Structure formats: structure tokens, C-alpha cells
Amino acid sequence: MRKKLPSLMLILLLLLSAAPVSEAAPSGLDVWVVNALKTVYRTSTLPQNPETAIRLVSARNEYENAQIAVRGTSDFKITKVEFSNLVSGGRKSIASSNLKYHFAEYGLPDTVQPNLFFPERVGDPIYPLSDIPDPLSNEKSMKAAANSTQPIWITSYVPSSTEPGVYEGSVTVKTNRGDYRIPLQVEVADAEIPKTSDTRFINYIWAMTNGFTWDGIQFGDASSDAYDVGKHYYGVETYSDKWFKLMDNFAQVMTDYRQNMIWVRTDLFLKETGTNLSEFLSGIPDDIDWSLFDRYMQIFIDKGMRNFANAHLIHILNYMPAGEKTDASWNEKLPDALPQTDAFLHNYLTALHDHLREKGWTSENGFTWYQHIRDEPIDDNATNYWTYVAKKVKATVPDFKTMDADPHGILLNDKTKPYVDVWVPLTPAFQEKEEQYKAEQAAGSDLWVYTCEVNQPPWLNRFWTQPTLTGRLLYWNLFQHGVQGHLHWAWNAWYVGSWYGDSTIVYPDKKNMTVKSSIRYEAQRDGLEEYELLRKIQETRPELAQQIVDSAVNPADARKYTLSPEYVKALHDYMVRAAAGEQVGDVPAPSSPYDGQQLPLTYMADNASGELKYSGTWYDKSRQYAYQGGVRVTETANDAVEYEFEGKGIDVVVEKNETSGKMAISIDGAEPVIADAYEKVQHDYFTIYAKRDLEPGRHKIKVVNMENKGLYLDAFRVHMAEGQQAYDASLSNIAIDQVPSLRFDSSVREYRLSLPDGADTVTVRPTPTDENGTMSVNGRPVARGEAATADVPDGISRITIVSTASDGRTRQEYTLHLVKGAINEPGINKARSSAQVTATATRTGDQGVTYGPQKMADGDYGTMFASPQGYNDTHPFPHDLVLSWDQPQSFNTIVMATTSGLLQGINDIDVQVSTDGTHFKTVARHVPIQWRSDKDDNVMEKTFAAIPDALEVKKLRIQINDADYRTWNMYALYELELYQLPDHGELDVRVTGP
To answer: Which residue positions does the secretion signal occupy (predicted)?
Structure first.
């Protein structure tokens, strides 16, 4: 049975925690413990109620992490970190050698070395100086500057032979300012993580070793110029003993972090030992020297790897005759034969397979060999060629498994499917086409997914521009959907530069001839271990395993998940105990639920309820992943919001970001709690405060902005008392006869609709969720089944639907903003008559013409203005768009058109006008631009915003405060339209029957 109370040893250690071992004069250092998933910034300070001990729950053969933060008012040095043995019951122990430490780093001196891929990036830092720590140093000491916090990464490993129990000891941080002892407790449960070599989940990351993707391929006698990591980053000769020792060190790190598959550049090893690929056209050479190939393979086999992939065949097949390449005829029927292509494939793959069998490295002995064909096919030609080659591969070496990354699911066609052994869609494609992929899996194929730079936040991925826990929860999500493997393209593609962590998850360490781990790499290993724990639970309690993951990640949308490090740790500890067969009780309740998560006896309240009382200057901001698609923001100290509610608890949901500051939160006038919403990377829909033990009844919460920084209020979540009834005032549908394409979403409260030409009336048919509720349309009562019709003149008008639940008090408001007469023609659209259009974020060269700012005012919805990709990395908002006229213009309506608005649309602007062409006046601030589409479907989307009348304008400056640019690292505007339209306000409506 698990101990419920701490031992005397732990109590003693707790009394001594976070204090100098020697009771000398105060040293001025603050020392505290931090959750491994929480980012420690250099500006982080000792919290009000700091953690002072490390408490971990672990399975056997599991690694668990924590952080110790150290901060001083003057420079100091951490000279060493020491661990005691961990002891349980005075007789069982975990040796101190199983405890490790690393210093988290905020930047590295390592740079991109000369290469053929990106010569322009040579000298760029691999991990530039950052506010966010990621690399984990292998050095034993670290200097720290005054008033700068230094995190120490602590890792506990529990050997497989360890008996269950509660093990206690300490960590001592030794500094030139005194020594600090922190208690360390590891509760070991009777569960075990399988060895990397025994797991059935495939963790596959491409690694740069003797070459990378397709570099260095030579078909004939020419020498190879493959990019060798040992030569360029470690100063060792390719294929020397030191090089192979480096590979051995790489392999050890990989398998320690649960990587069980690697790809092999077979062509480069054969080239080095004297066999040209061209020789396989005429047969299998008699004198193939496999020695380098074998030595490389043996290194990874000795570390436990049993899965290997041969590099993509397409890069070799590019040397085949032009007459054997795809053309339009392949769409009707694939060729029966391609003489040289077929000869090469048969001979090359047969030679490889025969050698693998001779070495005992085939499926009969537990090895699996995978064959890449072409990475990321995206069109008919690529798909046809992939299909032809895969067919030949399966005919030649049937036990080689065919696979490739498939970003859009293009291989899911009847012609190709018979030759796909492993499906590897990009995670968005998998989410969209899951039913099809699961059918292929049920038919016997393997199902993996892959991630890369396309899976931008909030997709679960490993970027350092998103919360650390996303790289961990990715594997929970894969378990959630029965996915059997994961591919990522870059373990150490350092030639790319930083690329937000997409290009590397480890860092070079030439001094120690190995790599540095990273905080993200640690999170990935944790997620892989938890995949195994969940599978163990699934064996006996599948419904519990599913409940655990569903409580953290939305099963219908992997972009929605908990953002609480504490909750992830609580679930981890719970699943360790559950995997051990302990009585664990209910799954812990979420402390920061994801948007849409169903929680019993709760309801949400935001601006649409009409019950929040704001004081000060607030504005609305569109946010795709906020509750109801937006937040309300203030940037002024002492601005406040109050909300009176009935219940027994309340949560405050906010957006955390780098412009946020501190807020004071109080209930019923009590002493306020201070909460800090700063986070370098954006956290949407984050529960920053929770008070869930109030006396049932009426209460008032007040949130006050403490600084002239952002307070991004999303919503309040009310926890009701037992017996208290929740009322739902939402609508289940709004149908508009004249706009049949309207995509209604009950969580979206504002719609901006352009009425088609000839639509002189509009008929609205709302349906309430509450069958006993009431509705009104522009003040007129409308019963269930009735419709409201209004005549619509040219201009801007509005229809407001108020839905009231059957309690008579709970209400929701939906607003339809209508525009009619906005016709994109010269003389009507004022932007079309502009003399000049400029932008601060303008592309150069030919792209400056193709995607230049003039394209947004050319009347052509097939052209667009697009900012340079990556521009925001070095040029943060605001950006400007400026239109100039020879003759003054007047307008009060801004229309924007783009495709995929939630992927590339501008969403927050200030409007500034000049009547003399020199001096500007701001007429509207933080105008929200709302988009609906997050599909890459090339369907044009229009939205509009009304502004105060801008009269006799010679220059318009639109200041872009924000945009949805993160998916493609750019924003785009196909057409900017300006109109002078009358504002008719709310329309008169007449109510008609069903």
C-alpha cells in the first residue's frame, strides 16, 4: 500500500529545504522548485508560495524531471549539484548515480556551418539568445548574473530492478554563496516502462549523420559531397574511428530518449567503399563492400534498435531516362514496365535484402526494414510515380514496408492504397480524414502520423514557440486515436538554423563529443513513456485509459488541450498508480480545462451574457482559440471587470502572452490574489485563477489590471452548487433564407454577412436550445418555429437576436451585421481609385511584384498582397498599409477579402486618416476583423468593419496590430475595399409563422 504520510526523514528535509546548509549570514539567493513543464524565465522571481521540495511519482525504467530555480541580487556561481542516495524503509535504495542535473540555457554560441542547403544562413545561431530556455548544458557548473534566474534541470531515473516504495533523499545545490538542500522524494509504483527495444510504438526521427536527405547522391563516378555532421560540427573525419564513436554516442542518446528507428543512407556507405549506384543497372556487383554499412548498423543494433529505413528512392531515380518519367498518360494507366527503373530497383533492393538476411537483420529475427520512395507527394505526377515504384518494391522485397510522409492524404486513392504498408499523414490531415485512415489500419496497415513546421501552434508539436507540454501531450493524443508511430524530419538538422525548434531537438556538444538534450526533448520522452503507461492501463481498463487522455486533450480537435503543467503532472502520477493496479479513484478534475470540455455543474459567462460590468478602456480582439472566438482587452492600470454570479466557485479564464501583466482577483471584497499572465508564448483559454470552495449563493468577483500592460479576459467559469440548475440560452441554429451558405456555430455570437445582389429582404429563422426559452429579434418576440423578415436597404444594418433561457434571466445575444451595396467596382470601392498603395511588410524582387501591396486594390480576387514569410520574427507588429489619393475620398466601411482567414487574415487594426497627406488622425482603434475559415481550400472569405465617417481623406493608414500569421509565417490580403455606406442600425422586422 502506498504511504499516505511523509516519513520522519522527509519531514526533517522539508524543515531544512530551500535554506543554506550552513547557518551563516544570509546569502541573498532565492531557491525554489518548479514543475518541469513550466517555463522559468530569467525574470522569474520567488513566488508567493514557492514549492520547496521535489516530489515525483515514477514507474520502473522511467525518467522523471523537475526544476530548481536559483536567483540572486548579485552575480553568483553554482559550482556543483550533489545528490544523496534515495532510501526507502531504511533498506531499499536508489543509487545517486541515477540522478542527474543540467543547467538550462537561454542561448548558444553554436552556429550554422557552411552547407549547400542554406548558404545564406551560415553563421546564424542554432539557438539564438532567447527569453525561453531550451538547451540543457552538460557542464557541471554555471555562472549566473545578478537578478537573473538560473534553472537547474533535475532528472530521476528508476532502474527496472527497483522495488516499489517511497524513496527519500536530497539534492544539494552548491554555490559560492552557500549550499542549499532540497528534499527529493520518488514514489515508485509497481509498474514498468518497457525497454526502448521492446516497445511497439515507433518513434522515428531523421538524423543528420554521414548525410541528410538527398544530399551527396551521385549515380556514377563523381565524388559525393554529402554533408557530414561529424566533419562540420565535431571536427572528425567521416568514417574514422572518432566518427563512429560519435555515432555510438548519438545512438546512446537516441535510445535513452526512446527512439527506436533511424534511417540509413545506404548509398553513401556503398559509394565510399567503391560501389556506384549506376552499377545496379546491369546487375548486382560481385564486389560490394558492406563494411561501413555494417559498422554503422551494428552501433544502433547494439543500443537496441530494430527498425531501419532506407533513404528515399526518388533521388536516385531522378537519374533514370526522361522517357521513364511520369506524364499525363499515367493518370489513366500506370505503365507495365520501365526497363532501367525496374532493373535498378530489382538489383539494388535485392542486393540490400540479401545482405540483411545474411547478417540476420530481417523480419525473421525481429528486425523491420522500411523503404521510403518520395517524401510528401502533393500532385498526380508524384502520386503516380510513388505508386509505380511502391508496386515494384513490394514485388521485389515484400517484407520491406513502404511508407512516406503524406501531408494531405493524397495516397488515399484506390490505385495507391494496395502498395502502402504504413500510413503517415500530417496530423491535420489525420484529424480531417481519420475515418479513412482507421479503415486502412483495420485492414492491416500500420498507422503513424508526422509533424513538422506546417503543424503550427496550437497543433500539438515541439516548437519552442508553444508551451512545452504540447510536445508531451502529442503522444497522449496519438494513444487517444490508436496511432502506432510518429515521424519527425529533424533530430539535428543544424544547417537550417533555429526554425523555432522544428529543425532540431538536440544541440551540438563538441567538447563532450555528444549532444545536449533540450527541455523539449525531455518532454517528448515523458510523452512516450506515458503512451506506454496508458497502453498498460488499456489492457485491463480501456475506458479509464480513454478517460485520462480525454480529460487532457479534446478527442475531436487536437488543437484544444489543457495548458496546466500541474494538471499534466497530476494525470501522470495518476496513470503510474493506475498502471500498477492501485485503487486510484476518479480521474483528477481538470484545473485548466480546454475549450469545449464538458464539466458537470459549470457554465461559462462572457460579454455575450450582458452581465459583466467593465470600467475603464476595453476593446475586443478576435482570437480563434478563445472562448466564443474573442477576448476583451485593457492595457490600462486599474481598469477592472466585475461579475455577480450564483454558485460555489468560479474560474478566471484569460489569454497569457508576452504583453500581459499582473492582475488582482478578489471575491466579495476579500484580500485579492495576485496572478501574473505573462508568458513568452501565447496561452489561449488559460484558467489563471480558480476558487471552488465558496459557500453556495450569490457572489461577486472583481478582476483589476495592476499594470499598464495587457489583461486579456476570455471568460468566467462558474461552478454551481448541488441542485443548482444550469440554463442554456444559446441558439441551436440560425437559418437565413438569403444566405444559405451561412455556417452557424452556437459558440459564435457575431456574424458579418455580405448580402448578394438583388437581396432586398432578409428572413431569419432562429432556433433556441432551451425548448421553454424565449427569443426576440430586434426587440420583437419570436416564438419557436417563427421567422423574422426585414427589408434591407443599401448600407450597413443589424439584426440582434436575444435568446433567454427558461429561468427568465440567463441570456445570450447574437448579432448579424449586414452589408449591402459593397460592390467592388471603380467609383464605388474607393480603394480602386488610389494613386499609390504601400506596405511596411513588402516582399522584394519578383515576389514584390507578384505579391506587392498594389494587388490588394486591383479588383482581382485572384491576386493578393502577402507579407514576407518570417517577417514578423524580426519586425513585430504594428505594420502599416497606406493608400494615397489625388482626389479626396470619404468612406466608413472597410471590407477585407482573403482565403483561409484564420490562417492568414489580418485581425486587429487601427485606422488613421490624413486630409492634407501629411498629418494623421486616428479615427478607430483596435478594430476587430473577424474570420471564420481555417481551411486551406482557396475559398474566398469576406468580412467587414464599420468605422466613424472618414471624410475628404487624401491618405489612409491602416495600422496592423495583429494577424493570424503563424500557420504560414505570413499574412495576406486579396482585396481591400472602402465604401461610404449609410448605417441603418437595427432593422424593423415583421414576424411570420413557420
So the answer is: 1-24
Is 51:33 a contact under the CB 8 Å cutoff?
yes
pLDDT in tens, 46-82: 998 999 999 999 999 999 999 999 999 999 999 999 9
Q: 264, 206 in Cβ contact below 8 A?
A: no
> Are the beta carbons of 150 and 78 closer than 8 angstroms?
yes
- Report the run of H or E that residue 520 belongs to, with start and end: helix 519-540
pLDDT score at 193: 99
Closest-CA residue to 786 (of 940, 994, 585, 958): 994
| Residues sharing a CB contact under 8 Å with residue 598, sequence separation 6 or more, in sequence order | none
Exposure of 831 in the CB half-sphere (CA atoms within 13 A): 30
For 804-837, the pLDDT digits (tens) are 999 998 889 999 999 999 999 999 999 999 999 9
Residue-wise pLDDT tens digits, 625-644: 999 899 999 999 999 999 99
Q: What pairs with residue 69 in β-bridges?
A: 32, 151
pLDDT for the residue numbered 10 = 44
Residue 721 has pLDDT above 80, yes or no: yes
What is the residue-averaged pLDDT of the chain? Answer: 95
Backbone angles phi, psi at 572, to 5 degrees: -60, -50
Q: 940: buried, middle or exposed (CB in 10 Å: 19+, 13-18, 0-12)?
A: middle
Give the domain ranges of the chain: 8-192, 202-520, 602-719, 731-821, 830-984
pTM here is 0.93
CB 436 within 8 A of CB 414: no
Q: List CB contacts of 458: < 8 A, sequence separation 6 or more.
A: 466, 470, 559, 560, 561, 625, 684
Q: What is the pLDDT of residues 436-477, one digit of tens each?
A: 999 999 999 999 999 999 999 999 999 999 999 999 999 999
Rounded mean pLDDT, 764-783: 96
Average pLDDT over residues 141-150: 98
Question: In this structure, are residues 459 and 476 in contact, taking their beta carbons and an 8 Å threshold?
Answer: no
Q: What's domain 602-719's superfamily in CATH?
A: Galactose-binding domain-like (2.60.120.260)
| CATH code for the structural domain at 202-520 | 3.20.20
Give the strand pairing for 983-986 and 795-804: parallel
How far apart (Å, rounded) are the C-alpha atoms in residues 258 and 255? 5
Burial 686-723 (b: 16+ CB within 10 A, else e): bbbbbbeebeeeebebbbbbbbebbbbbbbbbbbbeee
Within this chain, domains 602-719 and 830-984 share the same CATH topology: yes
User: What is the β-pairing status of strands 485-488 and 202-205?
Assistant: parallel
> What is the phi/psi pair of residue 446, to 5°?
-80, 150
Report which of 853, 943, 899, 969 is spatially closest to residue 622, judged by C-alpha positions.
943
- Supply the CATH classification number for the domain 8-192: 2.60.40.10
Tell me the CATH architecture of domain 731-821. Answer: Sandwich (2.60)
Bigger pLDDT: 138 or 969? 138
pLDDT tens, residue by residue, 298-317: 999 999 999 999 999 999 99
Q: What pLDDT, in 10s, does the model give residues 148-157?
A: 999 999 999 9
For domain 830-984, the CATH superfamily is Galactose-binding domain-like (2.60.120.260)
In three-state secondary structure terms, 94 is: strand
What mean pLDDT do residues 4-33 have? Answer: 54
Residue of 156, 147, 145, 58 lying closest to 102 (CA atoms):
156
